Amino acid sequence: MKFLAALGEQLSTGLRRSREYLAAELAAVLRPERPIDESLYTELEEILVAADLGAPLAADFTNRAREEVMFGTVTRADQLRPLFRRFLGDILVPAAQPLDLDHRPAVVLMLGVNGSGKTTTCAKLAAALTRSEKQVLLAAADTFRAAAIEQLEAWGDRIGVEVVRQEPGSDPAAVVFDAVKAATARNLDALIIDTAGRLHTKSNLMMELAKLKRVIERQLPGAPHESLMVLDAPTGQNGFAQARMFNEAIGLSGVVLTKLDGTAKGGIVVRIARELRLPIKLVGVGEKVEDLGPFDPQRFIDALVPAA
Amino acid sequence: MFDSLSTRLQAVFDRLGSRGRLTEDNIQEALREVRLALLEADVNFKVVRGFVERVKARAVGQDVLGSLTPAQQVVKVVHDELVELLGGSGHRLSPAQHPPTILMLIGLQGSGKTTTSAKLARLYAKQGQHPVLAAADIYRPAAMDQLRTLGAQLGVPVVGAPGQRPLEICRAAREEAAARGLTPLILDTAGRLHIDEAMLDELRTIRSEIRPHHVLLVVDAMTGQDAVNVADRFNQAVGIDAVILTKMDGDSRGGAALSVRQVTGRPIAFVGMGEKTEALEPFHPDRVASRILGMGDVLSLVEKAQEAVDQKTAEELVRKLREDAFTLEDFRDQLKQVRQMGPLDQVLGMLPFGKLLKGAPRELSAEQADLARFDAIIGSMTPQERRHPEIINGSRRQRIARGSGTSVQDVNRLLKQYAQLRKMMKQFKGLEGKLPRAGLPGFPTLRG
After folding, report:
1. By the CB < 8 Å criterion, does A287 face chain B?
2. Which end of chain B is more exposed for a tag (fewer CB within 10 A), N or C?
3. Degrees (nearest 5) of the Cα angle A301, A304, A306?
4. How far apart are the first and last CA of chain A?
5. How many distinct helices (H) and strands (E) make up chain B?
6. pTM for the structure as a whole
7. CA separation, residue A263 to residues A51, B183, B361 (Å)
């Protein structure tokens, strides 16, 4: 994904807070001289839960640690650190996958719950593509939320990308139909579709999304090439339910993790990658339009569990 | 709301209840599961630790083990502690002595401040007050437009124009409120990632200049372990008086709700239950605790029903249920009234046996479009068919479908749901006699 600038420093600063927070707690538990006993396992488990990794994953890892200790491969507490980094790497390295935009037009469908950052992510992705000389079109298919269309248009003006829109309250399928038609006719590189936020428990709204996808498929076989669920980093275990249900309803091609610039660690993506085998395709780390990049598992692990 | 937490806790207590006598080990084991259920629900791990310790201290004492119904005593202890955790008796926003009462909403990006501002305005307008909104989020593209659109829908004035600074907008709004006698004044501030000192400065300035009576932190109920950090930071940096939880209509396990109050010591004032502007409810800790433990929240249900249903119709309905004379006409009236009360699944969630009726609510949580279709279908039936649905045979079904512009499948679905509802009501009637927790000493009576 060379058209997206490497995140470099931005991600580091974005993740620094979570690193400081977790690092201190971990360092206290994984001191070399600390005896490995039940209280260590309990504290370790709590730290993992505090990172939003979820109780099942925390229990699995501590069980694995117990086994290693039993077999004598781990004898000191600090040896659990590389063990945990490997444990995370096994899950996250295969999950880091680039966007599939090798189509003309490549159609990207952005979806997720309310307030996760879909509109901003659409704009950031459009800007990144424009910077690498691609011709992009945005579609304002969130016709429900008040002023969602204006929000995307304001972004469009700012980054110089045209926005396909209709009146508020109109059928999102009609907007999408127009947009796919325009993108195909003009032979553009990419079409990015912003949809209305919806809670994954609202079955009628999930059906509406499935319909949007059908409309796109019918018009342009093979599309949408990416159906990305936007998830904000502070989300807890509910994020897993979101990913599962969006995936069941329309079939996701990956997840975008946004707002990693707060104190939140985004640990829920580990569970999503592990249990649903969904790739993590993009990471958003700030409010600026350039703050979107590919998911770098090593950096993510460094932030969660520093090497030492 | 709290569905999955509720399901898991109830499973734990059911297992506990199936034993005649309890040992300390039984309780320890149950508490381990309670701990997992709470962690899985995103309750902050420190809060979980304290909670489990408090329950343990009270539950392994002689009082519980020696009692005739130890499992129920454990449930009672958990209930009491949950109420305590959630903030005792609930919180009302007191009006200012000299209007306007000023409410300031703050929170992270995407937590739902703008929508919640509009919901609050609607709530106060409905109580006969004249609220005014200040659009002080000048950063997010079109945030001002969003509030204007919502304000226009509600008929509530919105102060703020592009190019103005947030403090200017808030001042202008306060002056306008004072001049026109409008109250409360609701300030919608810019969302932020709380690490941003410049933004926090802006909030502090607004707070000290405008002197809001209540600073309300808006928290997304789906937030994980970080919720307490967020709340704590905002509380330290700006100071908050109460919390509003949003997006509680999903399957969010509401752990944030259980943690934020404990960590900040600030009560939860409201919960947001949907995208529509009427979807904001006062938060009652005792009722919510009952709901989590599957004891239902009949009080809230009764209040909702009182808003939507007139007393006479309700009494009539109860009589019909008793006599099993519930017809399709009643079904249609019910659908209409229920539509006014809110989504069916939320309504059923408040019933003490909502969990037992599981499956049916899902079928029943028919979309609004479905309800409109049902209305049309019942409208196309003859009075006799409505009173005696069993006479509706194949050719009648075809006629009804044609008449209502629907399909035979739709008609079948309606009849199936009607039959299901009747069955549910029979179940419900059967359960009424053997409410298991009804006679529990010192336990809040939940049967309305």
Report:
1. yes
2. C
3. 75
4. 30
5. 21, 8
6. 0.75
7. 10, 36, 38
Which of A17, A235, A287 faces B224 most closely, judged by CB atoms? A235
Q: Of the candidates A115, A146, A153, which has its C-beta nearest B112's C-beta?
A: A115
ipTM at complex level? 0.77
At residue A87, what are phi and psi to the nearest 5 degrees? -55, -45
Query: Which pair of tokens denotes residue B150?
Result: 């919502």
Nearest to B251 among A148, A232, A238 (CB): A238
Q: Is B419 helix (H, G, I), strand (E, B) or coil?
A: helix
**Main-chain phi, psi angles of B88, to 5 degrees:** 60, -120
Instruction: Determine phi and psi for A2, rounding to 5 degrees.
Output: -75, -15
Q: Give residue-wise pLDDT tens across range B212-251.
A: 999 999 998 888 888 888 888 899 989 999 999 998 877 6
Within an 8 Å CB–CB cutoff, is residue A259 touching chain B? yes
Residues B25-44 have pLDDT tens digits of: 888 888 888 888 888 888 88
Give the position of tokens 């009494």. B315
Q: A116–B110: do the CB atoms touch at under 8 Å?
A: yes
Write down all domains in chain B, each with its CATH number in brackets. Answer: 3-86 (1.20.120.140), 102-296 (3.40.50.300), 300-430 (1.10.260.30)
> Rounded to 5 degrees, what angle do the CA atoms B413, B418, B424 make?
125
